[in-house]
Amino acid sequence: AQSVTQPDIHITVSEGASLELRCNYSYGATPYLFWYVQSPGQGLQLLLKYFSGDTLVQGIKGFEAEFKRSQSSFNLRKPSVHWSDAAEYFCAVDAGNNRKLIWGLGTSLAVNP
Amino acid sequence: DTGVSQDPRHKITKRGQNVTFRCDPISEHNRLYWYRQTLGQGPEFLTYFQNEAQLEKSRLLSDRFSAERPKGSFSTLEIQRTEQGDSAMYLCASSLGGDNQPQHFGDGTRLSIL
To answer: Alpha-carbon distance B73 to B52, whole Å?
Structure first.
């Protein structure tokens, strides 16, 4: 069965520090992979997506993610975190023709001033 | 582009009552999805429409739940005889058809069962 694992439930970083959020997936074929961000009480905003081609993808708000097939990973990175980046981050895999998404449990990011 | 719109944003009701939520997708999107999200969890897939056809329903969607998309535009999700365990955020998303089309989410409807 398809699954997504986000090993870190909660991460705290200082403003201006670099960030890496981990995501591992389980899927038999090449997946479509996504990172979404959710602020409290809000819906989910798409940060970036990977479908094929270049394994390093750029997203909005200065985020990027790298697809590594050998490690079944799709980690999210940002070189310098801003206080406004504090939110919940979800990794998801699109694992079928009907395009439903399978989600990780999320990583809560706190940013210290 | 008005985005995906959900109504209401919040619903508080007593156990046993029926509730109905509405989702208006992005106008040109022919795919529409419903998800449920409980506190501290990722979203869980409930059901999916392509145009007016409901193509898949999760086993999470018990017989108390029904979703419709009668004209292939807006969709409604109804929960009958609500239970405490139905308390959650109900998220709607839409996308264009075909490959390489990401899902765009509304802000959700938060349901609280008293």
So the answer is: 8
Question: Do A103 and A89 contact (CB within 8 A), yes or no?
Answer: no
Place of tokens 């501290």: B40
- Cβ B43–A104 below 8 Å, yes or no? no
Q: Helix (H) and strand (E) counts for chain A?
A: 0, 12
Give bridge partners of residue B93 from the DSSP assignment. B33, B105
Integer Cα distance of B75 and B20 in angstroms: 10
Which residues in chain A are closer than 8 Å to B91, comparing Cβ atoms? 43-44
CA A104 – CA B92 distance, rounded (Å): 18
pLDDT < 70 positions in chain B: 1
Please, are residues A3 and A101 in contact by the beta-carbon 8 Å criterion? no
Distance CA B97, CA B22 (A): 21
What burial class does residue B22 get, using C-beta atoms within 10 Å of its C-beta: 0-12 exposed, 13-18 middle, 19+ buried? middle
Strand stretches in B1-114, DSSP E: 5-7, 10-13, 19-24, 31-37, 44-50, 53-57, 65-68, 75-79, 88-95, 104-105, 109-113
Above 90 in pLDDT, residue A30? no
**Which residues between 33 and 92 in chain A have a beta carbon less than 8 angstroms from any beta carbon of chain B?**
34, 36, 41-46, 49, 51, 90, 92
B83-113 pLDDT per residue, tens: 999 999 999 999 998 777 889 999 999 999 9
